[in-house]
Amino acid sequence: MQNSVDIEQENRRLRKVIVDKDHHIKILEDYILSLKQKQFGSSSEKLSPAQTGLFDEADDTEAMVEADRNNPVESIDIPAHSRSKRRASIPADIPRIDIVHDLPDEQKVCPHDGTALKRIGSETHEQLDIIPATVQVLNHIRYKYACPCCEKYLITATKPAQAIEKSIASPGLLAYIATQKYVDGLPLYRQVEIFKRIDIEMDRGTLASWMVKCGQLVQPLINLIHENILAQPFLHMDETHVQVLSEPNKTAQSNSYM
If you count Cβ atoms within 10 Å of the first and of the last residue's Cβ in the chain, which end, N or C, has fewer? Predict the structure, then answer.
């Protein structure tokens, strides 16, 4: 049986727990109200629900740790659902460069009887290495020829058609920039900074102009893809909606679809 002192202490503890929980509930209610206002209120810049917790990771982690500390749960090991950690693998077709580490000649002698040591094998440790992008200049040299007899005939060797004529951008450079931007999601201004690290000055406007011209070059392929899509019996679309602040005959709060 608990005495009156213990009951009173337990009562005070429970009252404090209730007060703390009421305070926490009030904070959450205010937070929810704020989120509703941002999400559904009249504004030209609404906040996506997926963005509301971008900066709450530290708080969420601390709350989870506290919850685990207060409510320990036994862990159950289910072999069928356990996953082994996979190590990074190195493809076999990547070229290998052997770096040999050998003993100095003075250590190739047995310290006990002075007999020369015999090599009996080796240990191998592979490391994946990478060579950063290298820059080179393609110098197109077109030889000219003239008739030494009549001196009336002059001819210059032709050059294959280029992706962008009279441009310093080679097809390889254009493909590199386009892949960085459209496959890896690297904006042009960041690529400009990357080029600066290897002492290559690039202008973002120039890169943007190159990408526009590349888009014109692949337009025939886009047309073929479009025709192939329209020839299918069904079209599957995700109807991604976007907000356009200035669109004819539509308010800034209305949705447009991509």
Answer: N
**Contact at 8 Å (CB) between 126 and 89?**
no
What does DSSP say about strands 241-242 and 256-257: parallel, antiparallel, or unpaired? antiparallel
Instruction: Provide the token pair at 179.
Output: 């892949």
How many CB atoms lie under 10 A from the CB of residue 165? 8
Instruction: Give pLDDT tens digits for 124-182.
Output: 999 989 888 889 999 999 999 999 998 889 999 999 999 999 999 999 999 999 999 99
DSSP 75-131: ----GGG--PPPPP---TTS----------GGGSB-TTT-PBP-------------P
| Distance (Å, whole) CA 23 – CA 50 | 26
Task: Tell me how far apart the alpha carbons of residues 125 and 115 are, in angstroms, rounded to a whole number.
Answer: 29
HSE-up of 127 (CA within 13 Å, CB side)?
Answer: 4
Structure tokens at 61: 């982690």
Of 121, 123, 69, 120, residue with least CA distance to 99: 123
Which tokens belong to 121?
């094998």
With 0-12 / 13-18 / 19 or more C-beta atoms within 10 angstroms meaning exposed / middle / buried, residue 181 is: middle
What letter represents residue 77's amino acid? D
Burial of 218 (0-12, 13-18, 19+ CB in 10 A): exposed
DSSP state of 50: G
CA distance 40 to 47: 9
Summarize pLDDT for 84-104 with one digit per residue, the tens. 666 778 888 999 999 999 999
